[in-house]
Every structure is written in structure tokens, then in C-alpha cells.
Protein: Phosrestin-1
Organism: Glossina pallidipes
Amino acid sequence: MLTFVSVSDEESTTTMCYILNPFSASCCETFLKILPLFEKGIKAGGKRHLTVFSANVAKVFVTEQRSGNNNINENMVVSVKVFKKATPNGKVTFYLGRRDFIDHLDYCDPVDGVVVVDPDYLKNRRVFGQLVTTYRYGREEDEVMGVKFSKELILCREQIVPIINPNMEMTPMQEKLVRKLGQNAHPFTFHFPPNSPSSVTLQQDGDDHGKPLGVEYNIRAYVADSEDDRQHKRSMVSLVIKKLQYAPPNRGQRLPSSLVSKGFTFSNGKITLEVTLDREIYYHGEKVAATVQITNNSKKSVKLIKCYIVQHTEITMVNAQFSKHVAQLETKEGCPITPGANLSKTFYLIPLAANNKDRHGIALDGHLKDEDVNLASSTLVQEGKSTGDACGIVISYSVRIKLNCGTLGGEMQTDVPFKLLQPAPGSVDKKRSNAMKKMKSIEQHRNVKGYYQDDDDNIVFEDFAKMRMNNVDMMD
């Protein structure tokens, strides 16, 4: 990670620039304070200007211009990563600017990209594209005697080459790719249908090597005379994408809470348990704070407190439901809570996918190879609808508090629902998350074959390597 620091004296025409590596942005000001040359350059009464740029992409240019009023203007040009994948025979290539597409409830981001085709290979044939979803609700190894536990649906299909609508409106990324790749580049746009489910993958056991359960999306392009012709693997390319939901810009002011009480046979009085969360919507990686208040007006004692974050999963295709603990805590602090005593305490839990690796049945936010993944986000629906109307795999979360009242007293519990989501685009939390992901992605792919950069248009191509078929018979 490179940190670019620009420093100037308000009364001086001299600008000093330093590149600190591997210093972080938070260390820059401290570093400059102890830099003798910098201290000597400050005149009496002058003010210091400090500008910090944190660059976590492959290529960054920082240019500085001194204006007449001694202000500094900084322009930073950042490379853009583009995903690339070609057919086995190398004649048709996908270019996609992103693989995550956001469902905003009232609309969904379109799937926009570019296909490059070798014109000599077409021979009066056409190139067709499809947006496909695969809903797997059973294990692949259990499919016997022709019984399938998956459904494949073609959500959108259209002819890409020759283009049907030559006046189609292109996105800035498509315009840049078409300009760079030349006349053999053809843009395309697919749209998700309303109420289509989000991408969800159910984690497998370590010994299970079949296709995972869940909802998966991919885009395809293939060469054929008509869209109903048989698709040949040598001239077909497919790329997995994800459809996700983000948190609304406003988290709301409501504090979810639950109040329960339990009485005992042959004993007077009750134990009252109240649980309150500090917010309704949490982002992935945030602490979930649960304030527990226990009032013991019975003759029993509370011996143990258990706290869980529970992930609830509903597979609508087979009407199956199950729950998994994704974070848990047990404590005897403040226990035993004897008759007539009270306890008020806040417990903190962090639900993370990293702490639930190789646990069967944990739902994830779709899973792409060599990419960090979050726990599946809570399923959101449009206002006026319920989650019972959602299709695919429906995810929800709750905080569960259990009190152990001894062998004869048994247990009492309550659940408080909340939502676990990704930060909304443009928010500070989302920018911080994206910066960390991009930096890690660049580090992973540095010096790796298949990842290269175009110096002219600031485009970084990530090529999905696939076996090329060199057999002459395969080229037709």
C-alpha cells in the first residue's frame, strides 16, 4: 500500500512530496513532525497544509498544481479492474466491470458488459447471451435415477452479435471498453426480473466436494445459428456473478427488545428477562451489543447465562427451515442470581464467516473463488410485503439469550430479531470496506499470471485462465 503525502507552506512556493511505504495514512503526520527538513521549511507564522492519499490499486498518479493563491489541487487517477473470461477456443471473450450487482428493492442494477468476438469465426452465425440462475436445494451426490435437486432458470436472453439495438445507451465502463477493444467489441445489458432472490451459498462439509446448495447467478455467451440451438462448450463462456442487498442509508432509531417471564410449579414468583439491542441494523463485522436485565422474584437461582447469535435459514423450494449459531458466549459472571437479586449487563458478540469455516449449513453471501465472503445478509422485501412472499433462500438473524435455572428450574430463553447487512454504497463504512478488499485483492494477484494492466486506459484485466483447445477440429 502506498501513501502519498503532499505538504506545503502557506507562505512558501516550495512543495515537498514524500512517498511513505509501508507507513499508513495515520502515521504520516507523526512522521512529518519529526522530519528535520520539513520543520526547517516552515516559516514563522506560516500554516502547514497536509493532504494524504491512500492508494490500494495497481496504478495511481498524483499530480500537483500551484495556483496564484498558493493553494494545491490534487488529481488522482485510479486504475479500474475488469474481469475477463474467454471460451475454450478463445474466439469469444467476456469483459465485465464488476461481479456484484445490488438489489435496491425498487430496482436492481443491470448486468452491463462487453463481448469481443473474432469476426472470421462467426461465419454468418450469431452470438447470444443469457442471464441464468441455478437454485440447488439438494446434494448433488444424492441425485440418482434421473432425480435432480436443482432448477436452472433462464431469466433473460438476447442476441448480442449482430446487435439488435444499435442506439442502445452504454454505461461509462462499456464506452471505455468498446473504445479500447475496437470494432469487434459489442456491449450487452441484462436485467434481473422483479423479486428475484439474492445470491446465497450454504457452506459444505470439508469432505463434500459436490456443488453447494444455494442460489447462483451466471451470464453466458455462445455462438449459434439461433438462440434455441445446442450450446457447444468450445464456443460458450460463462461467468458467475452475485446479486446482493445493501442496508438502507438510514439505520433507523428503533431499538429491538423482548420481555419474557417464567413462573415455576409449586413455587411463587417469577424470573423476568428483558433483552434490548442498541440498534436494528448491523453491518458485517460490527459488534452486536445486547443489554440483559434479569429480575429474580422467584425462589430459584440463575446459575448460567448463554448468549447466541442465530442465523435462520428457510429453503422455500422444499419448505425446509433450520437455524445455526454463528456466535456464542457463556458466562457465570454475576451468577448465581439469587432470589430477590437483579442483574443488568451488556454482552458483545461479533458474527463472522471467518469463525464458522467448514461448518455445514452456514449461509454465505454467495461465494466466488479466492474471495473473502460474508455471512449471508438478511433478506429484505419491499414495503408492504413480508418475508413469506420472498423466494429462493430467506435469511434472518436474532440474538438468543438463555438462562439456566438449575436442574429443577430448567431454562428460559428469548429471541430478539435484527438485520445483518452490508453498508450502503457511498457510505463511509462501505468505502472503508471496499478499500480493504481492493488492497487485499491487489496483493493476492500481484505477480500472478493472468492479472495484468493496460497502461493506456488505466484498466487492470483479471483473466480467468481456462484450458484452450488447440485441436483444429474444435475451431469450427
About this structure: Confidence is low (pLDDT under 50) at residues 1-77, 438-452, 466-476. The helical segments are 28-33, 36-41, 119-122, 172-181, 406-409, 428-445. Residues 128 and 227 are 6 Å apart (CA to CA).
